[in-house]
Amino acid sequence: MRRFLATFAAAATAMTVAPPAQAAAARVEIRKIYYDSPGSDRRSNKSLNAEYVQIHNRAGRTINLAGWTLHDRTGYRYTFDRVRIKPRQTITIHTGRGHDTAAHLYWGRRQYVWNNDEDKAHLRSPSGKLVDFCSYDSTRYDYRIC
């Protein structure tokens, strides 16, 4: 009976403790989507870059986002390349063109990604596992805090 209880306890502990990669993924979240850039939608680079998604690292350590993806319902996909997000740092992924920095990344698109009425952002790990999502269905505001 003791052997059974010890085996059961070990199995229960193994099931509740997430591996480091999964634990890190659970601490990265979509923080905000600014889906309706100010002014008229004329696809200027300034307007495209005013449409963005913010990703936040709640973990106490740097997380490598290389190979992670961010996409909408339509399937427009941004793939993170050699991006590391520091502890408690927020990075912003702008829709338009620009020069990447540690805090601002640029998708390089010439058209909008996020619908003004409703959409859903998905953040996935390199294996395709859903890490976080944020949806909205309102035209009351220009952004969604997730």
Quick summary:
With 146 residues, this protein is an alpha+beta fold. Helices cover 18% and strands 32% of the residues. Strands 8-7-2-1-11 form a five-stranded mixed β-sheet.
Question: Keyphrases for this structure?
Answer:
single chain; 146 residues; alpha+beta; Immunoglobulin-like; 5-stranded mixed beta sheet; 4-stranded antiparallel beta sheet; 11 strands; disordered N terminus
Description:
The chain has a single domain, classed as Lamin Tail domain (Immunoglobulin-like, Sandwich), CATH 2.60.40.1260. Helix content is 18%, strand content 32%. The protein is built from three helices and eleven strands; from the N terminus they run ααβαββββββββββ. The strands form three sheets. The chain has a five-stranded mixed sheet. It starts with a helix and ends with a strand. The N terminus is likely disordered.
| Main β-sheet, spatial strand arrangement | 8-7-2-1-11
**Portion in strands:** 25-35%
Structural class: alpha+beta
What is the H/E string? HHEHEEEEEEEEEE
Write the layout of secondary structure elements.
Layout: H1 2-16, H2 20-26, E1 28-34, H3 45-49, E2 52-57, E3 63-64, E4 69-71, E5 77-79, E6 84-85, E7 90-94, E8 104-106, E9 119-124, E10 130-136, E11 143-145
Parallel strand pairs: 7-8
Antiparallel strand pairs: 1-2, 1-11, 2-7, 3-6, 4-5, 4-9, 9-10
